[in-house]
């Protein structure tokens, strides 16, 4: 029976299905740095940098979603950095998307290139044809943040494998409910769980998932040695968000598609990027590998002033960076130096009723044209 249950049902009952009489139904927050440890230093827990039961429960829950072993981190960047630390050695080459999350390139340039690692970049749309010869690690981010370019994960995975490289997929914009890179041949998934996974814009967190036992041990060791440990309170917030992930994502995906369609036919909008749109250049490949297209829509307005006016005036948009939270939000990405037009807005759908959101967006766009 449990084999036929959806991942989200198994996640919801993972802990409650094992409770002894009298145990709390809600996940306890184990706020402790140390554990009772008489005699020999062994047993299940001894010091919280090595393991904490609240964190381990969340890791098991995300493990159900990923069908893999999971290590949770205090941010998405801490998760990504741990993979670089565990895998890259002087003389290695790493290939990352030129149009993906900018701090990944900044981290490599600041800390890994000076240690003798070669950094190569390639646009997401060209990843499936990239030259991977001599690479130790290839990273993809699909759909990419913020441009929403998509690459064919299975094709990239096959090419990485034949080049002898590991493939790491940043699955933040899709989440494991919409896309499973490990099923398509990726060796490692990394995510910023700060976004849709935790889902309430109140905690930073991230994870690494892999089905390779050696990589899993290497990442765990890295976390123990570097000390990038999530606290039990933050782990609890992530757990609490995960319990409603499917519901929130269904609404966010529906909102993003409805808003993208409305924007597409609006005269004030120069272009719309959303892999769920039938005429998006990445729609076909997205259809093959995604079950939903995520909360982010990219739209280009006439110029910086129109973009700022749209974000400020739309009554259901908070002006903020990040995405995947319950409130719809938006920002102009050129302000961070992303290689996008000045009028490019990254719109992140929240969970407002769809009709309200479409009306608010359309009416605000009407005032621009
Ligand atoms: C936000 C984000 C990150 C970084 O995650 P943090 O939790 O902010 O450290 C990495 N990759 C992508 C695609 C992101 O959107």
Automatic annotation (TrEMBL):
<dbReference type="InterPro" id="IPR015421">
    <property type="entry name" value="PyrdxlP-dep_Trfase_major"/>
</dbReference>
<dbReference type="Pfam" id="PF01053">
    <property type="entry name" value="Cys_Met_Meta_PP"/>
</dbReference>
<dbReference type="GO" id="GO:0019346">
    <property type="term" value="P:transsulfuration"/>
</dbReference>
<dbReference type="InterPro" id="IPR015422">
    <property type="entry name" value="PyrdxlP-dep_Trfase_small"/>
</dbReference>
<protein>
    <submittedName>
        <fullName>Cystathionine gamma-lyase</fullName>
        <ecNumber>4.4.1.1</ecNumber>
    </submittedName>
</protein>
<dbReference type="GO" id="GO:0004123">
    <property type="term" value="F:cystathionine gamma-lyase activity"/>
</dbReference>
<dbReference type="InterPro" id="IPR000277">
    <property type="entry name" value="Cys/Met-Metab_PyrdxlP-dep_enz"/>
</dbReference>
<keyword id="KW-0663">Pyridoxal phosphate</keyword>
<feature type="modified residue" description="N6-(pyridoxal phosphate)lysine">
    <location>
        <position position="195"/>
    </location>
</feature>
<dbReference type="GO" id="GO:0030170">
    <property type="term" value="F:pyridoxal phosphate binding"/>
</dbReference>
<dbReference type="GO" id="GO:0019343">
    <property type="term" value="P:cysteine biosynthetic process via cystathionine"/>
</dbReference>
<dbReference type="InterPro" id="IPR015424">
    <property type="entry name" value="PyrdxlP-dep_Trfase"/>
</dbReference>
<keyword id="KW-0456">Lyase</keyword>
<comment type="similarity">
    <text>Belongs to the trans-sulfuration enzymes family.</text>
</comment>
<dbReference type="GO" id="GO:0005737">
    <property type="term" value="C:cytoplasm"/>
</dbReference>
